[in-house]
Write a structure and sequence with these properties.
single chain, 6-stranded mixed beta sheet, 6-stranded antiparallel beta sheet, 19 strands, alpha+beta, about 30% helix, globular
Amino acid sequence: MIPLRHLVAAFFVAGALPASGAEATQAESDQAFRIFLNVKEHLVEECVYQPTALAVLTGTLKALERELDPEFAPYFPQQLPADFPKAFDRAQKSLRKLAAQPEMGTRTLQSLVEQGLRGYCRTLDRYSEYEDLAASEMERKLKSPAYVGVGMTLERNDLGFDLFPFPSGPADLAGIFPGDRLLEVDGRSVRGLGRLEAGAMFPGSLGTTVKVKVRRISGDKQEVVAIKRGNIAPESISVEQESTGPVVRLRRLVPATLDELRTFLRTARPGTPLTLDLRGCPGGEFKVAVAIAELFLPAKATICRLETRVRSETFPSANPSPFVAKPLIILQNRGTMSGAELITIALSASPAVRAETRGERSYGKGVTLSVNVIENGGGQLRFADGRLLGPDGQTWDGEGLPPTVEDLRKP
């Protein structure tokens, strides 16, 4: 999952493109269509949905046509040949004519191709996206261990974005609930924006306030929530001692989380109660999630299965002396995602562990994602390249995992 500190790049994109409204040079044209071919190759060869080359081309053109004014519809071919090379040739001619129209203003052929790719990727699922070079480069520059922000992630849906606040972060403390729908930021609508563009609306100075209009997950009521920007701590886990035993909150699944959890378990008493708090955990690295589950699973127990275009791989535990907690309790909510859901299903489905899960149904992200830098002046492409299944073949993508004990409290 990508935190909001990574989602501010598009703020700097406006005005960065050279003027157009004229026939693109051969070099500009070649670069634009090489970007398309590079994206197409990744999707055709690796994406779990197995799109064909023609489907990527057709989808890109349709997505661009939908996003432009109706007056430009005549520039789009109504039907493409079934042969991809011929179809691609016709598409190139159509887009060159479109980019040369004076009404395009400062839009370039490359910006049009990338806009079409961006729109097409959004049709694949909730996770796939394409962002241009300026956005992806700024995203990489802004990565840092600690940052000033509101502390939440955005997850795209068919109608916009759902919000998932970091536990005890500024958004959480201000009253944002997991699954609230984002409508506006400081009075500006987020309708039609990409994640980077929407995320670019949140940065600001420490202590300043951003006003977020949301539609509540419970009751469908619209409200404006004022969030004071604060320091977002980079810690991976935190431990609290409760009367029922220690509660270990996993905030994100990175190598440091695994190391810190191992250190804690060396000092914990086996056979006593332990609670893993995965509420608001957006996931992280697949290998880290597998390794965390393995800490509690005996040797040869199945952790999960990963299915990609080229293989189906089962991941068994190789731990001869797993940590035993009695009971092992997992806390989950709508913000429990991806690798956090993998840990939950692996430990709750295991006959040897039978972890009890409490709270709400989880988010429902059961795929692995591939992130690729596109050559020839392109940006960044993200798409689903694998499906995750539980120890007994369970799937949870799009559905989430129900808890053992339902939390009936309403926000």
